[in-house]
Design a protein that fits this description.
Layout lengths: L5 E4 L5 E4 L1 H6 L13 H7 L1 H6 L3 H15 L7 H13 L1 H8 L8 E7 L5 E11 L4 E8 L26 H7 L16
Antiparallel strand pairs: 1-2, 1-5, 3-4, 4-5
Helix pairs in contact: 2-4, 5-6
């Protein structure tokens, strides 16, 4: 992964694992206790997010839509309700976007990231959804690099995506991709 930023989020958008570059993408996260590192909260409430992410509104709207998608079957969960209440009280944008009831799972996009020195880089992020575990891994790559390829869909209508050839060996071992395709871990992806 390194030097590319990468992190893993749970269904509430809490960052549960990250490499140093992934953690640095969200300025100030390293200073927070791990249980306080919530990317949706950061995007909606921390003014640094608007400075870092060139397409802030698109990314923030996507984060709200993904929060709803990841919790579609558990909207009454007390932990989700507490997060939604906190963000609704503090952010008019969150309140509006949550009220739109948009459900979306992003997989990839290009975005502009602004550095503290004023420089801007274009990066492509790719998201691997692990629905059975309620997790998603995001990898930020230089623009133009893709980690997935598509093959013809299998008869049962699931996406047949094989990403193992594009992942570094340590990540393959961590995700146990060395002997099986990623299809079984990506059941939620549409064809």
């Amino acid at each position: 992964m390194r030097p590319n930023p990468a992190y893993i989020l749970d269904r509430f958008s809490n960052m549960i694992a990250a490499n140093p570059e992934g953690l640095a993408l969200f300025e100030g996260f390293a200073d927070l206790a791990p249980r306080e590192r919530n990317t949706c909260r950061y995007l909606m409430l921390d003014p640094r997010a608007r400075a870092v992410f060139g397409e802030w509104e698109e990314i923030a709207r996507g984060a709200v839509a993904h929060l709803r998608a990841a919790n579609a079957g558990t909207l009454e969960d007390p932990a989700l309700q507490a997060l939604v209440s906190e963000l609704s009280d503090a952010s008019p944008e969150f309140l509006d976007w949550w009220g739109e009831h948009i459900v979306e799972r992003r997989r990839a996009a290009n975005t502009h990231l602004r550095a503290a020195d004023g420089g801007t880089t274009v990066r492509r992020y790719e998201v691997l959804h692990l629905p059975e575990d309620g997790l998603r891994m995001t990898l930020w790559l230089p623009r133009g690099v893709m980690t997935t390829t598509r093959k013809a869909p299998p008869k049962r209508g699931l996406s047949s995506v094989r990403i193992s050839a594009y992942l570094p060996k340590p990540l393959k071992r961590w995700l146990n991709f060395s002997t099986r395709p990623a299809e079984s871990m990506m059941r939620c992806l549409p064809v």
